[in-house]
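Exercise 7b. Backbone tokens:
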């Protein structure tokens, strides 16, 4: 989006209504999906609260993608699916509570992909003190956790992508309670701060978008951080529902999960609330999760303890259709998506939360993934 388009989005968001809430039905639409085609399972139990997750090929010794999950204790887990089912293990220990994680080609000098995890340098999320981000990778001698960056306060969200054309390869973006978006790049044997851009309020989550990064800020905005003609800037897009907490992007659309329990789709023609719950939402996925069904689906989870899949309007309807895929004993803190099962019919959904479970939901020919 150029500056004019962004201004249009801003104006539309300020005045757009929030109607068209989803139908709260635990059923899939008739087009292409059946009641028996989705199933969910506990892929791993960490025995402690989990705050964040990501899907990607972080372990080159096993085929396909893995799940990365980070814990309140600072422990980091990798979970994968093999011929005999799901397996998980603790691979590293950070010094403080870890909140967010991402998988990508963070270090172009290394083969394969790496993971970035962010949270506290020491102590718990609410203990104050410095934030920290680490690079996680599987080296010749096993899993390595390399210090990456220390911030003045909690790092709540991390992302990986090519956002700085002046720097070769991808960069790491850290956002959090220091009110800064920090862009980091590998330069030889060291990590350099390429940019530090002011945020309008604490950054909770970040997604790479059209050569820049969009940050969900707790105060009520989406901050778009990008560089033009060598100068970094922030274009803030107000979002009416208070407390954006998680964000996903697909094409020119954003999905925003908020503290007020609303899940909002932001498009060029305004903002539509596609789902609402009575408690905070902590998940936002916008992808083709059910390929036989026309359109792009959404998914979320949160303090209501459910993982919810949402289908776009079908056959002339206006509302999105919500389907509950899992009910848990604890609150959910994050949701991710990616290919994990060789016999899956589309990407899998992964959710983690305070119960310490890694939940995997999949659209398959039978309803019990992992059996």
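Sequence design result:
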């Amino acid at each position: 989006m150029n500056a004019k388009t962004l201004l249009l989005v801003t104006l539309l968001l300020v005045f757009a209504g929030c109607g068209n809430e989803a139908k709260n039905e635990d059923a899939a639409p008739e087009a292409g999906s059946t009641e028996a085609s989705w199933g969910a399972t506990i892929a791993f139990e960490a025995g402690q609260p989990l705050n964040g997750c990501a899907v990607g090929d972080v372990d080159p010794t096993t085929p396909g993608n893995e799940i990365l999950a980070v814990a309140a204790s600072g422990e980091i887990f990798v979970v994968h699916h093999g011929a005999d089912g799901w397996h998980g293990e603790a691979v590293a220990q950070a010094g403080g509570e870890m909140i967010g994680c991402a998988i990508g080609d963070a270090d172009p000098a290394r083969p394969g992909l790496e993971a970035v995890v962010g949270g506290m340098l020491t102590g718990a999320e609410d203990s104050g003190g410095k934030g920290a981000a680490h690079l996680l990778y599987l080296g010749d001698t096993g899993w390595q956790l390399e210090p990456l960056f220390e911030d003045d306060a909690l790092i709540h969200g991390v992302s990986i992508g090519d956002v700085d054309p002046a720097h070769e390869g991808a960069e790491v973006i850290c956002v959090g309670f220091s009110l800064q978006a920090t862009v980091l790049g590998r330069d030889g044997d060291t990590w350099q701060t390429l940019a530090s851009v002011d945020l309008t309020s604490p950054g909770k989550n970040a997604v790479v978008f059209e050569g820049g990064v969009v940050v969900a800020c707790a105060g009520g905005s989406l901050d778009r951080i990008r560089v033009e003609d060598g100068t970094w800037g922030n274009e803030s897009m107000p979002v009416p529902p208070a407390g954006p907490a998680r964000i996903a992007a697909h094409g020119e659309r954003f999905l925003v999960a908020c503290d007020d329990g609303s899940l909002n789709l932001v498009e060029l023609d305004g903002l539509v609330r596609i789902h609402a719950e009575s408690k905070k939402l902590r998940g936002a996925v916008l992808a083709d999760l059910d390929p036989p069904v026309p359109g792009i689906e959404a998914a979320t989870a949160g303090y209501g303890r459910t993982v919810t899949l949402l289908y776009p309007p079908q056959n002339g309807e206006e509302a999105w259709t919500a389907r509950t895929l899992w009910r848990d004993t604890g609150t959910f803190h994050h949701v991710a998506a990616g290919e994990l099962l060789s016999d899956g019919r589309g990407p899998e959904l992964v959710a983690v939360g305070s119960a310490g479970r890694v939940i995997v939901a999949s659209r398959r020919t039978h309803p019990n993934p992992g059996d």
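Instructor comment: Residues 1-36, 366-371 have pLDDT under 50 and may be disordered. The longest strand covers residues 142-151.
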